[in-house]
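4.2 Preliminary Data

To establish feasibility before requesting continued support, the project team ran the inverse folding procedure on a target of 120 residues. The structure was first converted into the token representation described in Section 3, and no sequence information of any kind was made available to the design step. The complete token record follows.
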């Protein structure tokens, strides 16, 4: 959880009531928990749409997937929309096979995700 004794922050930014959270290169227990904490923090502060950007993500392990299920649940409880952007083909196929795409929208890139968010 720490890198040389300090917490590694999850990169995120807000565009109105949309929060964009940037996933790391490997979505495992540690990075997944950081993403989940940031998503919950954004939801608690009134975010209506979460975009998780997977542009740097090469691999998602089973614990990473289970943490994403927790994020999906938190978004649904907050009646917020969840969009995954910049998902590579391998990860998109994994999300499809596991049924995550029934609960989230997939966007080709961040601009498309922001456009989807604006359609609500």
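Position-by-position output of the design step:
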């Amino acid at each position: 959880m720490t890198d040389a004794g300090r917490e590694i922050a999850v990169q995120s930014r807000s565009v109105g009531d949309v929060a964009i959270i940037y996933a790391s290169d490997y979505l495992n227990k540690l990075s997944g928990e950081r993403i989940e904490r940031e998503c919950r923090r954004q939801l608690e502060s009134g975010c209506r749409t979460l975009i998780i950007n997977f542009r740097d993500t090469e691999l998602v392990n089973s614990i990473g997937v289970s943490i994403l299920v927790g994020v999906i649940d938190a978004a649904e409880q907050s009646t917020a929309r969840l969009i995954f952007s910049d998902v590579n083909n391998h990860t998109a196929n994994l999300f499809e096979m596991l049924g995550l795409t029934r609960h989230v929208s997939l966007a080709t890139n961040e601009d498309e995700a922001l456009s989807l968010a604006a359609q609500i």
